[in-house]
Amino acid sequence: MTGFSHPPFERGRSMSSKIENIKNQLLSDNWYVLRKYTYDLIKRNGERQPQVREVYDRGNGATILLYNRSKKTVLLINQFRMPTYVNGNTSGMLLETCAGLLDNDSPEDCIRKEAIEETGYAISKVKKLFEAYMSPGSVTEVVHFFAAEYDDSQRVTAGGGIDDEDIEVLELPFILALEMIRDGRIKDGKTIMLLHYAQIQGWMA
């Protein structure tokens, strides 16, 4: 096969373009921070191209797949998500893995706290899997992905979230959760990534 180049992707190395003359304008600081950036993109061929982008900064987050090997089940939550309602989800309800913003916590501390608040399970040992930009075209957020095994003895509260949250906790057969991805009942990106990761790793085999 010809016509393709395969440059070495090294951590911290600039692969192509760079930007200069960066200016930013604060558009909103009502909930999180929305800024408009203007800059010159210096393309790989040396051409200078002015660009304008709006960037939403809501901080970084963490999510976790809670799974039980013996029962071959996973814990998911169901809650109302206004942006999905605006974009065609008639109920606004979304099935998801437990997740939350880091705020001032470490990713590990954040996800343990979120697990208790949202699902009611006190999880002590969590495994970091990977990190990912979830919407890099407009949102700064990096999400830290975790997994942990759970059992019934770890449930210390009913869960359901805090403050204005109204969260339903669901324990689903793993094979059903995979089917729900295929038929569209699960559409949340981070949840799909974690369920497929568990499938690839053979945790429920």
From TrEMBL:
Magnesium found in the keyword field: no
This protein's name: GDP-mannose pyrophosphatase
InterPro entries referenced in this protein's UniProt entry, alphabetically: NDP_pyrophosphatase, NUDIX_hydrolase-like_dom_sf, NUDIX_hydrolase_dom
Gene: nudK
Keyword Hydrolase: yes
Domain named Nudix hydrolase: residues: 57-194
Organism: Hafnia psychrotolerans
Cofactor(s) it depends on: Mg(2+)
Oligomer status and interactors: Homodimer.
